[in-house]
User: Fold this.
Amino acid sequence: MSQKRQADRLFEETMFELAERLRLLYSSEGSEEERLARRARIFEDAKESLGKGLEALDSNRYRGILGKDWNNAFVVSYLTYHQEPELWQALYDRFGRDLRATVAWLKKLEGEREPMTRIERWLAEGDGTANH
Assistant:
């Protein structure tokens, strides 16, 4: 496996582990103050683990992200686009692999309560049009 692919896999694993640790944290008992302190440590642990893994791979990939602040929005944005790659590929294929058209359609979903449900429903309809 190439160094690039190993770094990608390490980052992906780090993000999914981080998300699981955060899910457990938010469902746990304790005060808001305690949870915030534990959350900060969870983010630091994830960054440290990723940094050590990249160092072991002798990879600079993702190094820039280690210097950034990580927060819930960072994790959610990653998971949104990486949890269901088949869905995103199907959507992209449905638009004839036209990235501009795909993005334009996705922008129309802004404000939707459940955009993923809307995308899944639209893909299931199978009529080939994007005017929904």
Notes: The chain has two domains: 3-82, 85-125. The mean pLDDT is 86. The first helix runs from residue 3 to 26. Residues 3-82 form one domain.
